[in-house]
Every structure is written in structure tokens, then in C-alpha cells.
């Protein structure tokens, strides 16, 4: 079954870009030679990969046409030493299935994932050394492993590689691992489970081949020329046995702005072409129409706290600093303000703007500002500002101004809690947002989509207790092409997710959720929530969560527990008979040795009553974009699970701030779930404490 768990999934996003060779060119006094993509995606020559990497955060979206094959790929340089590629392959010579009623005349589609690791960075004498794995999970159309060396000399890049699997089928050299153990002499066939597993038992086994080539940067900067020698013989290709009149391939790559165009001649008989679009996730930004932070004059505010213009202070905090003031506590030498940051997603920028307004509007007698950020009426973090030091830094009275030296973030003090009495916490709230749901690799048609709006709203009783709901309205879709609803693949598991088609194709207007919710800070560093109602598209019930999250700590942990019942797809208010107790113990870790990275581990029971662990890996870039991947391994065997063998997926989180001319908080999440089955499926809770408490130790911004 293909991607039928329909959450907004826009792109199988993995990314890459132009390698920055300026540092080494300055050291060696040579002209830099950039890296470009090969046919399958990932840095390489034409059909063969190289050891080269791209700049960290580079993304390249690529399309290539090779007669029998078409490839759509996205390549991401996740770290300086790690490159990943996600790819869809269209095999023009094969049908999706032999049953016209199931897939019509659609050609065969296959997805693949590649990864490459740099083991040694190039130096003056030594080449760059990398090891790569192509199409290492699933059915393995192009499954390969390779070890590569790359060395630059002037405007030339030289590449020598040894490959196994698809890259080594010609067997033009003895497999060196076979000399060490006979188990490496033959490569096992087929794939384990029902696809989707990493078949590590085949790595570096079977025939091996040497391959490589040369890339030349011409004097005309946009043009690069390529020559490669292949190690593949194309005898057992997925498209059929392909004629190879020559093992030498020739190609050219032309760069124009953020686009690369490629043209090549392969196998002595085939012309191929392609185009890629390039950008960097670190440097993405949006021009803002916004005033700079308020400047501070050298004049002293010689008045008392009774003369503070409270109305002006409240307005300036909101319109110039995005801080919605709910209440304050004023003493002769200390002022505490409580409120919610609505505009600025970087805490340093938000603190600077608030601090400059406080310094302008408060008397000189106030030597401490306390800024308490809240979520609703729940206090999250307290920033204690040394007013005099802040003014010195803000007026540039130091050699190296650094506003961060004038304040510190900490948990809410008892004194602040004692004086916290928020006003105007009850009332109605509404919102509207657009959604775009899409799936790839469907039998009816490769690309299916659904677009519309989500209208949400509710009533807050005190800032901590509320009732909320969401109505989904479809405006544009082609889901009517679904030939089948419930998946007919045999399964011993309850149908907890594989009947998602019924839910998304039954009506153009549906109730996504409707629930009662309470949350609060119940102790130092400890937050809690309970909720009940229609919690997500497919389930309703009750649940609760606890989360321990110290301020600016790289570690948080907690647990959630939920008792839910499956909703009917025929009537938004009805339920089916299926009930389950589900919940997890959760650990969130931001390791110091992996900058801007969040590892999440969740252990517990899933919707199908299977038990196991979900591991989530997320990488944040300077733009605020987060790229992540996850996998759920449970006590369900691959045979019981079905196609895909276990649950896994990828996602992209994009800050709204990248689309707005005004500063904005919040983000939208775009998942890509290659295959959705019933094992390892968690409840989609409407609110998770790790997200609502993000200000305590920010990861996603």
C-alpha cells in the first residue's frame, strides 16, 4: 500500500547545493571546481556517484530523463559529512501492475533512499574519502554500496571508486572482502520481509567493479564537462536488459542562477538530460517590513514608578516588540511583566525589543526587569534583565556590545508566581489556515492531492481551560480517482490506519476535532495537560500528559496515556466498536555533539496494541526549517506488518516567518510517509506539551 495516511505531504525532501571550495582554493591557489548531481540524484558524474559533498544545508531538487527511466530526486546535505537523497523512479518499460482495474496503464514507480558519509576530508596531499549506500531499503532497484576517492587538481576533479551491487555488476575487479571471508563472494538475492528493511546482510557482497571519471571546470564558469567509466553491465536492469555499446559516458552541466541543466550521452547509444533547482536551507530568508529595535537616548528618565504611562507601555510592547501584555507587577526598583510573545521567534531578538522599550519607558530607579513569557495563561520562562547593564550594551558603551550578557533565562520565581494575576483570559478565539494534502506513488495515479481550508475556533475559560474544534473544508482535489478504499492486503492487525481513504474521500466538509483541554505548570519545571473529545480524524477519547522540561536544558522527559475509540467515517459524531489504551514514555535530547539536532525516543503501546519504540531524528537549519525522519519498531513481525516491514517517515517543518513580510511565529509541518500500515501507529494528539513549552528550551523556532 502506498502513502494513504493523508497528512500534508508536499515533497520527499532531501537536499543539496554547490560545494564551497573557496577556503581550499585560497589555501592552494587553485580555481574551485563545483559539484553537480548525477542522474539518480546526489553528487556525482553521470550514472556514478563521487566522494564529493555539498555545502551544509544545500538542497537540490532534480529531474532527469534517461529514455527507459525518469528520476525525480531531492538531495540534502544534512551535515558537512552526511548527504542524503530521496528518489522516485518511473520505469517506462514496465506497468505498475498487470491489473488494469487496479492501476490502469500507469507505468511502474519505485522510491529509493541514498546516504553518503565522508570519512576523510580532502587535504593538500590526501583525497576525500567517502562511503555511500544507494537504494538501501525497500525493493532495491538500484541497491549499491561504494567507497570513493576524490581529488582536485587545478580545474580538474578526479574520482576513483569501487562499487558493489548495481554499481558493480560488471565485476571488473575481484571483491577484496571475498578474500577475507567466503561469505562476501556471493550477493543474496531478493529482499527481506515485505520490503522497506535495510538489507545489511548484502552490503559489500558479490561482484565488485572499479569506476570513476573526471570533471573539468571550463574557463567559461557556467559550464562543466564530465567523463566517466561505469561498473554496471545493465544485464539485469529493472527496465529489462539494456544494450551497453560502451562503458564510457560523456556529459555537460550548465549553471544558470539557481538552476543546473545537464546533457549526457550514455552506454554509447542513449541521450539523457536533466534540470535541478538549488538553494540552501541555512540562508533562506524573507525580506521584512518592520521597524528596527527602538534606539536608546542618553537622557535619564527622572520620574517615579507612579508616573509610568501604562497605556503607552502596553501599546509599544505589542506593536514594536510583539509582546501581548496580560498583567504586570511594579515595585520601586523592579518591574515584572507577564505576557505572550506573538511575533518574534528568536528569543534574543524578542528580549532585545522588549528590553529597549522597558528601558525607554521605565524610570532610572528600576534596576531589574523581569519578563515572564506565557502560553495562554501558563507561565513558561522568566528572563531577568540587569537594567543598567542592558542600557550600557544597548547604547554601545562597551567595546564589544553583547546584550545577552545583561540577562539570564530561568524558571519562574516564586515571587513572580505570587504576583501573577492575568486579566482578560476568557473569550472566544478563531483562526483559519489553508492545507494541502498530497500522496505519491498511488496505483490509480502517481500524484493525488486535496486542498482546502481548516477553520478552527473555541472558547477559553481562563487561559488554561478551553474547548476547541476544527472544521475541514475541501475545495480542490482528485481523490475521486481512488479505485479502492480499505486496503485489501492480508493483515492480522486491527485496521487502525489503513482505512484512511474512507475518512478523506467521504465528504467535502468534516469535523477534524472537537475537544475540551486543560494545561498548567504544576511544579517547578513540570507541566501537565488533560483532554477529551474527538481528538483527531480517526479517533476520539480521553488522555493526559506530563512533561519535565528545565529551562535551556538539552534534556526533557515525560509520558502520555490515552484511552480512545475509533471514529466512524460515515458520521462525524459516531464511533466504531474498536477501543484501545495507548501511551508512551518520552525522552527529548538535544546532543551537544550534533549541533541543532533533536533526538526523540518514545516507548510504549500503539493504536494496534503492538508495543515498541519510535526514534525521531530532527535537524534544524539557521532559517528555522527543520528536516526530520523517524522509524517505529514494534513486536509486530514484518510479515504481520505487511508492505514496508515497519513504520517510517520523513517530514519538513517550515516557519511561517519565511512567507510573511511581518515577523511571525509558528510553523507548518509537511510529512512524507512512504507506506502507511497499521503497526507502529501513534495517536495524533491535538496538543503536545513539548510543542507548547518550546520557549523553555527552544529547538524549532
Write a compact overview of the structure shown.
The protein is mainly beta. The protein has ten helices and 30 strands. A hairpin with a 2-residue loop joins strand 1 and strand 2 (69-79).
| Gap from first CA to last CA | 35 Å
Portion in strands: 35-45%
**How confident overall, as mean pLDDT?**
89
CATH class of the largest domain: Mainly Beta
Count of DSSP E strands?
30
The strands making up the biggest β-sheet line up spatially as 18-19-20-21-22-23-24-25-26-27-28-29-30
Counted up, domains total 3
CATH architecture of the largest domain: Beta Barrel
Characterize the largest beta sheet: strand count, sense, and whether it forms a barrel: 13 strands, antiparallel
Helix fraction? under 10%
Overall geometry comes to globular
> Which fold does the CATH topology of the largest domain refer to?
Porin
What does this 3D model show about the protein?
The chain is mostly beta strands and 701 residues long. 10% of the residues lie in helices and 43% in strands. The protein contains ten helices and 30 strands. The chain has helices spanning 22-28, 100-103, 176-180, 310-321, 347-361, 387-394, 414-418, 500-505, 638-641, 689-692, and strands spanning 58-66, 69-79, 82-95, 107-120, 128-134, 144-153, 156-165, 208-217, 223-229, 248-256, 259-266, 270-280, 323-330, 334-341, 368-375, 378-386, 407-410, 427-440, 447-460, 465-477, 509-523, 526-534, 539-548, 555-567, 575-589, 597-605, 611-620, 626-634, 647-655, 667-672. Strands 18-19-20-21-22-23-24-25-26-27-28-29-30 form a 13-stranded antiparallel sheet, with no helix packed on it. Strand 24 (555-567) and strand 25 form a beta hairpin. The longest helix has 15 residues, at 347-361. It is globular and about 90 Å long. The two termini are 35 Å apart.
Amino acid at each position: 500500500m502506498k502513502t494513504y495516511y493523508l497528512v500534508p505531504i508536499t515533497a520527499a525532501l532531501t537536499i543539496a547545493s554547490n560545494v564551497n571550495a573557496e577556503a581550499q582554493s585560497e589555501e592552494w591557489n587553485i580555481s574551485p571546481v563545483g559539484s553537480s548531481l548525477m542522474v539518480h540524484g546526489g553528487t556525482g558524474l553521470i550514472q556514478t556517484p563521487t566522494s564529493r559533498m555539498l555545502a551544509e544545508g544545500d538542497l537540490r531538487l532534480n529531474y532527469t530523463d534517461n529514455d527507459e527511466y525518469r528520476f525525480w530526486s531531492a538531495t540534502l546535505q544534512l551535515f558537512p559529512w552526511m548527504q542524503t537523497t530521496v528518489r522516485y523512479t518511473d520505469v517506462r518499460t514496465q506497468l505498475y501492475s498487470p491489473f488494469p482495474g487496479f492501476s490502469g496503464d500507469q507505468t511502474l514507480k519505485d522510491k529509493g533512499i541514498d546516504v553518503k558519509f565522508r570519512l576523510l576530508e580532502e587535504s593538500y596531499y590526501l583525497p576525500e574519502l567517502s562511503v555511500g549506500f544507494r537504494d538501501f531499503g525497500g525493493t532495491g532497484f538500484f541497491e549499491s554500496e561504494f567507497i570513493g576517492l576524490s581529488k582536485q587538481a587545478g580545474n580538474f576533479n578526479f574520482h576513483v571508486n569501487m562499487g558493489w551491487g548495481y554499481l558493480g555488476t560488471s565485476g571488473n575487479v575481484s571483491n577484496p572482502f571475498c578474500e577475507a571471508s567466503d561469505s562476501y563472494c556471493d550477493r543474496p538475492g531478493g529482499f527481506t520481509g515485505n520490503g522497506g528493511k535495510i538489507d545489511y546482510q548484502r552490503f559489500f557482497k558479490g561482484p565488485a567493479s572499479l569506476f570513476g571519471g573526471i570533471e573539468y571546470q571550463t574557463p567559461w564558469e557556467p559550464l562543466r564537462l564530465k567523463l566517466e567509466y561505469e561498473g554496471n553491465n545493465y544485464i539485469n536492469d529493472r527496465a529489462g536488459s539494456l544494450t551497453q555499446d560502451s562503458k564510457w559516458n560523456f556529459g555537460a552541466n550548465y549553471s544558470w542562477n539557481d538552476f543546473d541543466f545537464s546533457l549526457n550521452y550514455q552506454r554509447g547509444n542513449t541521450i539523457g538530460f536533466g534540470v535541478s533547482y538549488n538553494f540552501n536551507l541555512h540562508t533562506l530568508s524573507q525580506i521584512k517590513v518592520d521597524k528596527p529595535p527602538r534606539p536608546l537616548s542618553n537622557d535619564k528618565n527622572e520620574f517615579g514608578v507612579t508616573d509610568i504611562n501604562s497605556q503607552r507601555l502596553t501599546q509599544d510592547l505589542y506593536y514594536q516588540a510583539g509582546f501581548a501584555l496580560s498583567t504586570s507587577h511594579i515595585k520601586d526598583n523592579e518591574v515584572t511583566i507577564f505576557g505572550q510573545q506573538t511575533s518574534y521567534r528568536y528569543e534574543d531578538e524578542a528580549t532585545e525589543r522588549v528590553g529597549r522599550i522597558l528601558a525607554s519607558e521605565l524610570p532610572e530607579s528600576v534596576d531589574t526587569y523581569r519578563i515572564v513569557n506565557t502560553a495562554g495563561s501558563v507561565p513558561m520562562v522568566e528572563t531577568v534583565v540587569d537594567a543598567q547593564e542592558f542600557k550600557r550594551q544597548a547604547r554601545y558603551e562597551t567595546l564589544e556590545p553583547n546584550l545577552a550578557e545583561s540577562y539570564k533565562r530561568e524558571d519562574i520565581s516564586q515571587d513572580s508566581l505570587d504576583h501573577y494575576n492575568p486579566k482578560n483570559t476568557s473569550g472566544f478565539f478563531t483562526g483559519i489556515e489553508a492545507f494541502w494534502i498530497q500522496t505519491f506513488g498511488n496505483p490509480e495515479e502517481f500524484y493525488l492531492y486535496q486542498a482546502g481550508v481548516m477553520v478552527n475556533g473555541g472558547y477559553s475559560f481562563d487561559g488554561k481551560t478551553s474547548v476547541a474544534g476544527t472544521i475541514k473544508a475541501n475545495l480542490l482535489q482528485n481523490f475521486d480517482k481512488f479505485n479502492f478504499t480499505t486496503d485489501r492486503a492480508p493483515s492480522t492487525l486491527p485496521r487502525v490506519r489503513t482505512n484512511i481513504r474512507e475518512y478523506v474521500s467521504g465528504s467535502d466538509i468534516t469535523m477534524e476535532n472537537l475537544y475540551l483541554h486543560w494545561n498548567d505548570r504544576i511544579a517547578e519545571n513540570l507541566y501537565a495537560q488533560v483532554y477529551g473529545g474527538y481528538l483527531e480524524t480517526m479517533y476520539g477519547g480521553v488522555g493526559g500528559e506530563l512533561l519535565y522540561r528545565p529551562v535551556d536544558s538539552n534534556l526533557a522527559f515525560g509520558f502520555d496515556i490515552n484511552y480512545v475509540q475509533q471514529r466512524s467515517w460515515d458520521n462525524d459524531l459516531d464511533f466504531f466498536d474498536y477501543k484501545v489504551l495507548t501511551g508512551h514514555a518520552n525522552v527529548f535530547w538535544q546532543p551537544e555533539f550534533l549541533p541543532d539536532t533533536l533526538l526523540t525516543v518514545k516507548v510504549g503501546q500503539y493504536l494496534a496494541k503492538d508495543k515498541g519504540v519510535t526514534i525521531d531524528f530532527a535537524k534544524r537549519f539557521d532559517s528555522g526549517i527543520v528536516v526530520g525522519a523517524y522509524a517505529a519498531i514494534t513486536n509486530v513481525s514484518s510479515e504481520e506488518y505487511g508492505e514496508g516491514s515497519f513504520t517510517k517517515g520523513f517530514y519538513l517543518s517550515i516557519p511561517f516567518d519565511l512567507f510573511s513580510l511581518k515577523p511571525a511565529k509558528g510553523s507548518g509541518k509537511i510529512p512524507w510517509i512512504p507506506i502507511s500500515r497499521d503497526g507502529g501507529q501513534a495517536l495524533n494528539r491535538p496538543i503536545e506539551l513539548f510543542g507548547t513549552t518550546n520557549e523553555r528550551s527552544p529547538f524549532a523556532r
